[in-house]
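DM from R.C. (forwarded with permission)

"hey, sorry to bug you on a friday — could you get me a structure for this? deadline for the figure draft is monday and I only need the backbone to look sensible"
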Amino acid sequence: MSDDLYELATKLYRDVGGIIASPVLQEADQPLDRLAAVRALGDQTTAMLSSAVVAARRSGVTWQQVGEVMGVSRQAAFQRFGRPEPVSGHEAEPPAAVEGAAVERARAVVDELARGAWQAVVDRFDDAMRARLSVDGLSAAWSQVVAAVGAFDHGGETRVSRTSGFTITTTPLRFEQDECTARISFWDDGRISGLFILAGSPS
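My reply, with the result:
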């Protein structure tokens, strides 16, 4: 297993068992909340799939072979996973402008959470997020985090990745008693499509 794929698998394993604040905390018995949590995990499995395809291509696997494993045509496999950069070498990072904007947005969201500016955060949500996580729900979720790990102290350096049409930011959060991780998914227009506070620091 490649290092990238191993890291993604490790994150997925941790996130399945370690989500301590997410839309599902608002009303855990609601089907839409469970759907939202599963959708977020689905984003991560999609990232794992993309990483596996990249690793296979670097090892010499053809698009025809990728398509056969995926149950689609060669063209469909390339359209979904194809990248403009050569197969050899490292996977490209997000463009500098995209990365910089995502870092600033993530920092702003963390600051708004720390200040209790719940409406400001919710105003950044896309329609699907607004439908499943209200201002009160976000406030309650953050309160649960603080109750579990103490008062928020500061945020760390934000990392940025690009997968499945989203820009994903990962920011370590230092609380009084422990560390957590803020993982936020952004559309290209800056709207938030996913927001999770995860147990532990980023690996």
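R.C.: lifesaver. Residues 17-29, 84-93 have pLDDT under 50 and may be disordered.
me: no worries. Residues 5 and 51 are 6 Å apart (CA to CA).
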